[in-house]
């Protein structure tokens, strides 16, 4: 069977598939140009993979399965990276606050190799909490963006490896798969 425009009888490599691929490429360009967020990235990639595999196999069920699987894998990977970044940021802030005497303010900043997730602000030890189990501190920190500055209150505690974030929130490792 000859391949090319109209010669594949509109099968996987015929004109319909080529048109679908062109629409897919155009959609991805628009998706990227509109500034997609990390949370919608998996949906876009999953849809692209589903359309491409559906066009290549001429089977919409295969396309749907590939789209769902790809979206799940991308979403899980993005969540893992964001959790790791947040954990690294919290550990950096805990180290900075662990070195400070109470009342003193110090700046902190996170710079990543890609221009996403870069944050900066200041941190201050508000009070020390000594108890028989652990030496902890309450810290007040700010997160600055281009338009706003937000303030938060958190706790850090001294562990064997140094100061660590102690506030129970999803970025803490003990939450595991519940994040």
UniProtKB/TrEMBL annotation:
Superkingdom, natural source: Bacteria
Protein name per its UniProtKB record: Uncharacterized protein
């Amino acid at each position: 069977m000859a391949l090319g425009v109209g010669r594949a009888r509109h099968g996987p490599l015929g004109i319909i598939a080529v048109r679908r691929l062109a629409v897919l490429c155009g959609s991805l360009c628009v998706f990227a140009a509109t500034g997609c967020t990390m949370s919608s990235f998996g949906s876009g990639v999953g849809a692209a993979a589903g359309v491409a595999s559906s066009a290549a196999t001429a089977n919409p069920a295969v396309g749907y399965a590939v789209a769902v699987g790809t979206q799940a894998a991308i979403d899980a990977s993005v969540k893992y990276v964001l959790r790791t970044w947040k954990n690294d940021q919290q550990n950096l802030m805990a180290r900075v606050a662990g070195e400070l005497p109470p009342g003193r303010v110090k700046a902190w900043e996170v710079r990543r190799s890609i221009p996403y997730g870069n944050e900066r602000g200041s941190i201050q030890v508000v009070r020390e909490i000594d108890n028989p189990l652990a030496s902890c501190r309450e810290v007040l920190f700010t997160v600055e963006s281009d338009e706003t500055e937000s303030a938060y209150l958190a706790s850090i505690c001294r562990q064997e490896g140094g100061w660590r974030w102690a506030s129970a929130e999803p970025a803490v490792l003990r939450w595991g798969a519940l994040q």
